[in-house]
Write a structure and sequence with these properties.
By secondary structure, this protein is of the alpha/beta class. It folds into three domains: 2-275, EAL domain (TIM Barrel, Alpha-Beta Barrel); 311-423, CBS-domain, CATH 3.10.580; 434-601, Alpha-Beta Plaits (2-Layer Sandwich). It contains 24 helices and 20 strands. The protein has an eight-stranded mixed β-barrel with strand order 1-2-3-4-5-6-7-8, surrounded by four helices. A five-stranded mixed β-sheet has the order 15-16-14-19-20, with helices on both faces. A three-stranded mixed β-sheet has the order 11-12-13. α3 (69-79) runs antiparallel to α4. The protein starts with 17 loop residues before the first helix and ends in a 9-residue tail after the last strand. This is Diguanylate cyclase (GGDEF)-like protein.
Amino acid sequence: MDAFAVDMPSLTRDYLPTSVRQGRGPLAELMRKNALYSVFQPIVDLRNGSVYAHEALVRGVEGTPLFGADALFQAARVEGLLFEFELYCIGVALEGWGRLQEPGRLFVNISADALVDVVQRQGCTKLVHLVRSFRVLPRMLVLELTEHERVNNMDQLIDVVREVRAAGLSLALDDFGDGRSSLRLWSQVKPEIVKIDKYFTKDISQHADNLQTLQALKQIATIFGTQLVAEGIETKDDLRVLRDLDLAYGQGYLLGRPELLPRVKVKELALEVLNDTLVSIFPASGRVSRSGVLRGLSVQQAPCAGIHTTNDQLSVLFLQHPELHAIAIVDQGRPLALVNRHEFMTHYATQYYREVHGRKPCLANANHAPRLVERDHNVDELVGILTSQDQRYLTEGFIVTENGRHIGLGTGDQLVRSVTEVRLEAARHANPLTFLPGNIPISQHIERLMDAGADFVACYADLNHFKPFNDHYGYWRGDEMIRLVAKLALAHCDAKRDFVGHVGGDDFIFLFQSSDWAQHCEAIVQEFSERALTLFDDAARLAGGIQAEDRQGAQRFFPFTTLSIGAVRIQRGQYGHAEEVANAAALAKHDAKVHGAGLFVRGAADILPV
């Protein structure tokens, strides 16, 4: 730990520790020659597009292997100068920032252990005095904690953090989520700012899981009173999503690269995104949740039998508990078998059964391969139980376990009901047939459009004569037709501007921000009419339709299935809730179906021709 024992003057170029002055490596030589300098990358307020702060980043000699920060720190490790170099970089950053006298905050990187060593050895007062000597105000300095995995003493760090904060300096946590950062560190240090690693922000416009992670981190930040900085912003789509997530700050090449002179304004391309009124389309999960857990599964508390329990003793248990449909046989908490009440009592009531078998172990008459359902089973695993060939659980029930240990019993109807409830809840988020966003994300996107004051068009799409088609050709062909609508809607809508949702069945909702939304709708209707013909057989194509039962059960002729889209223009302040918008779109759909296939704009004088 001798490397920590550097004097505070080593933060300046005029005072170098002995290890640097006598060092023979290329980095030590660069430090002696004052060949290192700082560049400054802006941290931007995503709410108004202003430059909030700058992060100081060290640079070496351009065109050489020792130019970037990663290479320089690797050289410091090799030469055994890691902590000396760390403090030297802070000095370079403070010297450069003080010379420029720019407004705004300065973020400088320091490892947690280096901060502890400096403050404990030389005191926070001396650190503040040194910061001021560079003409930098302590309240404008943010110490960005790095190398989280190297925190050797958390208690010491917390004490130092308390001193640093009392001296007027602020703290940030760097690269949270990079695999080394700790939620415990965030909780205990309670930094003013946490920087989210670019793993979670890069291509966030395409990754629903990362979006949900950021939403969760926002909730944690609210609890701890922390502001978030999204790192690694490089594309307009990602910036728009992060802006609409209401993250406070962002950093990345799209906003501004590290430069010798601090940026006064955000790059124009990024400013256009931050100031536009386009509401981003949050990425959908693309699947029904596979991690749903039956936490609400009803467990029937029940006594259990042991491996030596006799048939007579088991009959007494059943008589004492008339509500039980079965009893589990358990050995040291581990379920071995299940005895069905009806089957056992039927045998037990037969002539001479008690005399011959009453004192024998009941294990001989049990099902030795019962259904075991873990309390935290994945939904897909449970669906496998429901669809398996072995359906004995419907009459026998099943044993509920927690970490493999018996905790009670369940019935077949409970299992079916629980799985159905989880599936229905999942379908509200993502339709299981098309994987398009369901009712909940549809409502959420409408709310986001309304909150942003955006003008948009809400369209409700529905198939004409779909039920006869579905009845005539079967559900598999009907599902294929519904998937065709989804495919065409995604193909003809602008993924960056327009939202496509699946309400259920053959009902869809499109939320357009594209100015040419009517052409998109017309293209969907037209292409559907052409491609849906392939789903009919040759005889139907020749006849122009099919003979099928109507809703009253009478046979009649139905023409080919077509698509109707009802549209309503939504203006700022026109509606107060998402349900009102959805209802207006549904009324437009009704008008469209009354008028026949095609696009109908509610409130317009005429049907737009298709």
